[in-house]
Specification:
The chain is an alpha/beta fold. It has helices at 22-36, 83-94, 108-113, 132-144, 154-157, 200-210, 223-232, 246-254, 271-278, 291-294, 309-317, 324-334, 337-353; strands spanning 4-8, 40-46, 56-59, 100-103, 121-124, 149-151, 167-168, 188-191, 214-217, 238-242, 259-261, 283-286, 301-304. It has a 7-stranded parallel sheet, sandwiched between helices. The chain has a 3-stranded parallel sheet with strand order 8-9-10, covered by helices on one side. A 3-stranded parallel sheet has the order 11-12-13. The protein binds uridine-5'-diphosphate (UDP).
Length: 354
């Protein structure tokens, strides 16, 4: 059965800007795979979104502020002429043309609006528990519309009191885009949005201690935070390579000996870890959030005590013990687009049957 699917992108940035973090890639991967399976897909996203060959309806308006910068008791914030509100107004108007709406935003409004829509809504929740208001509204939807809350990983869903009501989907990558590199150079890599919750300063510290050059890829989301790191570590062997499109990122990432993943927060299921494995690059990661589910200890990487730079340094010494082929193999077995497509399609179909 082919369905008509309306994808609602994140309102914190246009697609392709990097502001939306992993959600941007997750959305385009699911869209790509659903189109390949013959479903009809339309993506609703903020103005100036770019996505090669995917059908996008661009919506103007003010961007939403990222939820990860909020504290537990913060109220919901919606700016004047909100792009989030405008996107959902558009969805309301066209809903009759679609079988299912898929919400990719970690925002209160789409969850609140769910009972007001005639077309069913699936919510793919991209982060763990962050604020009380969000926890409350997600749980309300989970109870009122069973099966419509999707998450990426078990550690992520465990941050919610209603973990058992979440459908675990796990991300998938278009592995044909990522080339396996068996012979890396001498550098380490760090990939992601440059923002405090990502803890990049620990990777920089590890580079300084070991003297091994660190290549950094990603959008500088928090400029003062990045400037402070550059001031604190003026002589660390780091090279900022910018925010690269996937094909260029994978090429440079593949040349690296390992990827350092240093989150301060519970990452749901970071795409950068899966992309790294797809290139054959082992992971050295804090044992936190989805990374604890992804890293196969001693086989595709090492889990390090959270916030321990010493732990990172120690693990780096053992990088050569990892068989890069095993890393690529893990990506092929667990994170292929096809496997993700099966899980996601099954989720959609269950919701539509109700
Ligand atoms: N990314 C990219 N180019 C870069 C660095 C990062 O396209 O130079 C993308 C990467 O592919 C990933 C996203 O940025 O999809 C980061 O997402 P992740 O899930 O790791 O973390 P989030 O930002 O969602 O917390």
């Amino acid at each position: 059965m082919h369905h008509k699917l309306l994808f609602m992108s994140t309102p914190i940035g246009s697609l392709g800007s990097g502001l939306g973090g992993g959600v941007e890639l997750t959305l385009s991967n699911i869209a790509k795979e659903m189109l390949r399976r013959g479903h009809e897909v339309k993506i609703v996203a903020p103005q100036r979104s770019i996505s090669n060959s995917l059908p996008i309806k661009e919506i103007p308006g003010e961007l939403q502020i990222p939820a990860q910068n909020q504290t537990r008791t913060d109220p919901i914030f919606i700016p004047k002429n909100s792009v989030l509100a405008n996107m959902w107004d558009y969805a309301r108007q066209v809903q009759a043309n679609y079988d299912l709406i898929i919400n990719f935003a970690y925002d209160w409004l789409p969850l609140y609006l769910t009972p007001f829509f005639n077309t069913p809504i699936a919510h793919l929740i991209s982060m763990g528990s962050l604020t009380d208001t969000m926890d409350h509204i997600i749980e309300q939807v989970a109870n009122q519309f069973p099966g419509t809350i999707g998450v990426h990983g078990k550690t992520q869903s465990a941050t919610f009191t209603f973990a058992d009501k979440c459908k675990c989907l796990v991300n998938g990558m278009d592995l044909s885009v990522y080339q396996f590199c068996s012979q890396p150079g001498s550098c380490l890599a760090w990939v992601g949005r440059i923002a405090p919750e990502k803890g990049i300063e620990d990777a920089v510290a590890a580079a300084k201690i070991t003297g091994i050059p660190l290549k950094i890829f990603g959008l500088i989301q928090d400029v003062p935070y990045w400037e402070k790191i550059c001031q604190d570590y003026p002589d660390a062997p780091i090279e900022y390579r910018g925010f690269l499109p996937t094909d260029e990122l994978q090429q440079e990432l593949g040349q690296c000996r390992g990827l350092l993943v240093t989150p301060r927060w519970i990452e749901a299921y970071p795409n950068v870890a899966l992309e790294s494995l797809a290139c054959g690059v082992p992971l050295i990661s804090y044992r936190r959030g989805g990374l604890a589910e992804i890293v196969q200890e001693g086989k595709t990487g090492f889990l390090v005590e959270p916030d321990s730079v010493e732990g990172l340094v120690e693990a780096i010494k053992h990088l050569d013990e990892i068989d890069r082929q095993a890393c690529r193999q893990q990506a092929e077995t667990l994170y292929s687009l096809e496997a993700m497509g099966d899980r996601t399609e099954e989720w959609f179909q269950k919701i539509l049957k109700k």
